[in-house]
């Protein structure tokens, strides 16, 4: 067996132990990013994603998984059911249903657990947290577009004015999320993100001022790395509507982190910013305000239970 196949199987086992209780379609690309970090995969995350996807497409050959676990993996990652697995399910008299693309949209286990979902690209979860809202349009009205738009140098927003740069003290190798969400609130207001998002940030600030929720720097760096790469993947050469210059945004976030934290605390975050800037090179990419808002919401939901519960 090839080393690549061993790596993909190791990644699938790593992932499955963490999704085995989930009942919604998860984001496989983000899980591949996370698994790459945790299992020490040396190649780019997209290579691991492709390897995992190929293994799932021929899941009948995957060793060490029960029929129920294989069905659950296909359901969770929206992979079409192979003929071989369909025959096994039919032989065992399983109750299941497929959509038009042969993906499992409904099945029940022997224990009576029901799994049911509609597979769409616009609605995915990561670690059990919903990534994308149904919010598909920007709430920024015509009067505020010039404030938020960064399409050229004349409208370049100075994000140094958005972020405070006071050093945030470490607490037992953890970050105080109240301080971070204060920055998110200011950022959202400056970019005129949706009223719903700004309200959520304000609520989180109030609640966290009383709870002092913290997150280990290692967890912060891992989640930041996954979410930032997701942002760069979703950037465009041309964006219609309010957007930011991605390269300048990354550099200014990096500058903020460097000034506000000890370098070692944010080593992972700083390294991924450097890597993504090197990949972009001279290419100009844009990220829409709406997309950025969705990505920040997803990241904060993973980092903070308080944020996830604020609606």
UniProtKB/TrEMBL annotation:
For the keyword Coiled coil, the answer is yes
Taxonomically, which superkingdom? Eukaryota
The record ties this protein, via Pfam families, to: SPK
Coiled coil (UniProt feature): 263-290
Q: Which residues form the SPK domain?
A: 12-112
- Keyword terms, alphabetized: Coiled coil
> This chain belongs to which protein, by name?
SPK domain-containing protein
Tell me the organism.
Caenorhabditis nigoni
């Amino acid at each position: 067996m090839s080393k690549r196949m061993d790596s993909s199987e190791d990644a699938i086992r790593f992932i499955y132990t963490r999704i085995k209780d989930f009942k919604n379609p998860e984001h496989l690309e983000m899980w591949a990013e996370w698994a790459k970090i945790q299992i020490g995969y040396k190649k780019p995350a997209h290579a691991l994603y492709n390897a995992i996807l190929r293994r799932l497409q021929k899941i009948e050959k995957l060793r060490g998984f029960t029929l129920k676990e294989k069905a659950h993996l296909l359901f969770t990652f929206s992979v079409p059911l192979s003929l071989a697995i369909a025959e096994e399910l039919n032989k065992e008299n399983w109750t299941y249903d497929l959509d038009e693309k042969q993906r499992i949209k409904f099945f029940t286990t022997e224990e009576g657990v029901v799994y049911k979902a509609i597979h769409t690209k616009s609605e995915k979860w990561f670690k059990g947290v919903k990534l994308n809202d149904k919010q598909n349009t920007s709430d920024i009205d015509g009067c505020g577009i010039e404030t938020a738009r960064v399409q050229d140098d004349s409208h370049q927003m100075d994000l140094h004015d958005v972020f405070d740069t006071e050093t945030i003290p470490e607490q037992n190798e953890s970050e105080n999320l109240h301080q971070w969400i204060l920055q998110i609130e200011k950022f959202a207001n400056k970019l005129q993100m949706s009223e719903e998002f700004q309200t959520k940030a304000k609520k989180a600030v109030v609640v966290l001022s009383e709870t002092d929720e913290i997150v280990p720097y290692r967890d912060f760096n891992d989640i930041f790395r996954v979410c930032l790469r997701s942002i760069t993947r979703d950037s465009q050469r041309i964006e219609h509507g309010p957007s930011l210059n991605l390269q300048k945004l990354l550099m200014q976030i990096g500058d903020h982190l460097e000034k506000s934290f000890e370098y070692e605390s944010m080593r992972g975050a700083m390294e991924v910013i450097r890597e993504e800037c090197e990949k972009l090179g001279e290419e100009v990419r844009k990220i829409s305000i709406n997309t950025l808002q969705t990505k920040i919401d997803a990241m904060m939901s993973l980092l903070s239970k308080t944020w996830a519960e604020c609606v």
